[in-house]
Specification:
Blueprint lengths: L1 E4 L5 H10 L4 E4 L3 H8 L10 H11 L2 E3 L7 E4 L5 E2 L4 E2 L2 H13 L4 E5 L7 H12 L8 E5 L9 H7 L2 E5 L2 H11 L7 E4 L1 H31 L4 H8 L22 H8 L5 H11 L1 H16 L7 E4 L14 H11 L6 E3 L11 E2 L2 H6 L3 E4 L4 H5 L8 E4 L10 E2 L1
Parallel strand pairs: 1-2, 1-4, 2-3, 4-7, 7-8, 9-10, 11-12, 11-14, 12-13, 14-15, 15-16
Antiparallel strand pairs: 5-6, 8-9
Helix pairs in contact: 1-3, 4-5, 8-10, 8-11, 10-11, 12-13
This protein binds ligand SAJ.
Length: 406
């Protein structure tokens, strides 16, 4: 039996996937409300295919609990926030979960850490907790790092198809955990050591962050001399060895906008390109705010309160707002004492910010200028309704006449 600890964006789909592929699974989360919701038969976030997967897992007998279980394999998938000031990972939830596992686990158990952690976290924080409980690692307890790789918006598909990395202290345990993931994963599963697995995860997200920063920097350069960055990227990408990503209003989510800081925090004098890239990405919401003022001036618009931001989530078609560029932009407008921007997101039904609307028509009635911050499918379907508005399209999805780009 597998006890999956932490039933959030990664733990839940992983638990469901294993259960629906014949593995006996109990999912544990300290949040009673979340466990009650799952027990009542409801998923806790939206994702393509998650409801069907949930149903298959329920049919296969998955259980949910607030208690840690006595079993031989644990998968720890709890959040790893980062400390904004020190730029270091905060492993408190991982440490606390491992402590709780130690309180119940039998000798011989395997503890798999799936949470994203900075390189060295297992040596520094996880091993001492296990040893402090009187266990010898490698004899009484086996330790593995199996970092997740799935992308919000396509999680179920990627869980099934992505290649994976398993880091283990010894090959035998690595192969055992590989077999567990192979119960559902159709991709290649590479077994390596723990430190390498920790590093690969952070490097993958850093690669993407640096490449997005390059696109964002190009957008700024092109804006300076009024060139079309999208056309330039399109043509450059026709070169067989060039593949530039897309500029945008900023980088959000709990991965690309966070993990690279672990490397900057741990190697401040070495991680120069990464540091500069992260600052470039973090500066994009301010760049958008400046664009809003420039365009308002050009179009003779006087009231910032008649400008509306479309999209609150960190990217299209997900309901996750963590580190979202729109939230960063709203913070930025407060710093510039220019509050009043209107906001609408079809996927955020709760009131989370001031001046938030819950209906597209009312939102459009309240504004003269729309800033497309997120390329949700909904806005693509209603593009024609924007034709009498001034539009700043930060995602390059709108081809109405006169639309402004980054
Ligand atoms: N973005 C751009 N331009 C682009 C691509 C993305 O501005 O060309 C922005 C998005 O709008 C968003 C942010 O970057 O605000 C991040 O979005 P994303 O789709 O690139 O990535 P995430 O954060 O949703 O998921 C990433 C993935 N990592 C990589 O692709 C290397 C995923 O595979 C990881 O599992 C996930 O981080 C994670 O949990 O670590």
């Amino acid at each position: 039996m597998i006890n999956v600890i932490g039933l959030g964006y990664i733990g839940l789909p992983t638990a469901l996937m294993m259960a629906s592929h014949g593995v006996e699974v109990i999912g544990t989360d300290y949040n009673k409300e979340l466990v009650d919701t799952l027990r009542a038969g409801y998923t806790t976030f939206k994702e393509d295919g998650i409801d069907e997967l949930f149903q298959a897992a329920l049919n296969a007998g998955i259980k949910f609990s607030t208690e840690y279980q006595v079993t031989d394999t644990y998968i720890v998938s709890v959040p790893t926030p980062y400390d904004k000031f020190s730029k270091k990972v905060d492993a408190c939830y991982v440490i606390s979960a491992v402590k709780s596992v130690m309180a119940v686990c039998p000798k011989g158990a395997t503890v798999v850490i799936e949470s994203t952690i900075s390189p060295g976290t297992i040596d520094k924080y996880v091993r001492p907790v296990i040893e402090a409980n009187g266990f010898t690692i490698g004899e009484d307890i086996h330790l593995v790092h199996a970092p997740e790789r799935i992308i919000p918006g396509n999680m179920v598909y990627e869980l099934l198809h992505n290649n994976r990395t398993i880091g283990a202290d010894n090959k035998e345990i690595g192969e055992k955990v590989k077999a567990l993931y192979a119960s559902f994963c159709q991709g290649e599963i590479v077994v390596t050591d723990i430190r390498t697995a920790e590093m690969t995860k952070v490097v993958e997200n850093t690669f993407r962050a640096v490449n997005i920063a390059f696109a964002n920097e190009l957008a700024k350069i092109c804006r300076h001399d009024n060139m079309d960055v999208y056309e330039i990227i399109r043509i450059c990408n026709m070169h067989p060895r060039v593949n530039i990503l897309q500029p945008g209003p900023g980088v959000g989510g709990h991965c690309i906008s966070v993990d690279p800081w672990f490397l900057v925090g741990d190697y401040p004098s070495l991680a120069k390109v990464i540091d500069e890239s992260m600052r470039t990405n973090d500066g994009m919401p301010d760049f958008v705010l400046n664009r809003i003022y420039e365009i308002m001036k050009e179009k003779g618009l006087k009231e910032i309160g008649r400008v509306g931001l479309y999209g609150l989530t960190y990217k299209e078609n997900v309901d996750d707002m963590r580190e979202s560029p729109t939230l960063q932009l709203l913070e930025s407008q407060e710093r510039h004492l220019a509050t009043g921007l209107k906001v609408y997101d079809p996927l955020i039904t709760k009131d989370v910010v001031a001046n938030q609307f819950h209906d597209l028509d009312t939102f459009l009635d309240a504004v003269d200028m729309v800033v497309i911050m997120v390329a949700h499918s909904e806005i693509r379907e209603h593009m024609v309704e924007l034709k009498n508005k001034v539009v700043l399209d930060t995602r390059n999805i709108c081809n109405l006449d006169g639309v402004f780009k980054l």
